[in-house]
Amino acid sequence: MVKRTQPGNGPNRALCYVRVSTVEQSKFGFSLDAQEERLRAYCRMAGLEVAELIREEGVSASIPLGKRPAGSKLLGQGTGSHIVCLKLDRLFRDAEDALRQTKAWDKAGITLHLVDLGGTSLNTASAMGRMFLTLMAGCAELERNLVAERTASVLAHKKHQGKVYNHTPFGFERAGDRLVVAAAEMAMIHLMRERRDDGWSFAMIADAFNTDHIPGKNGGRWYGRTVKNILENSVYQAIGEHP
User: Fold this and answer.
1) pTM for the model
2) pLDDT tens-digit profile of 19-35?
């Protein structure tokens, strides 16, 4: 949603962008209104005129800015504008996305302002500001990659120990926090493997199960990608089952 406040076409024209994802809204109460209040206060202090307030509600950071319902509004701005946002992760999904777009804004004479950087703010009007933005984007990318590595490591450890690591995989049942073999389902996995060895495609295996009215884990239909995911899941090798 775009909230227009003033026409504002001069050199102090500012567009404020706020965003929350569905998870943040439901679990952490990360408020659009609170972000807006911070940005308006910053603009008053910096002598910027808030021409538009762009609100992005329930949209994940993994979606590129230009493909968000309201975020694409920022990409069509003319020269001499200011874009004001709380943090870098409100705007961009990764370092490449951030650096590419901020470089384009810099060429167009558009200054990006980040309001909350641990008690200080940053803008790209100066060479020093652009340098710090580059460092921040790289550090944010590093942190995301480290989190992904730690998560993958934890999941791999749980799989190796035969512990519940997410949803209960086909071929197993839960026993407390551990996985135990479900014999009937594991027999089906062995059948999947035999058919793959005989040259069946994943889709053919799924179609055969559907034709025989064999339900999936939660009673649903079979799909080729479901069979593929089951046969490629390392949990079977981890606990000594080799479908």
Assistant:
1) 0.54
2) 888 755 545 556 788 88
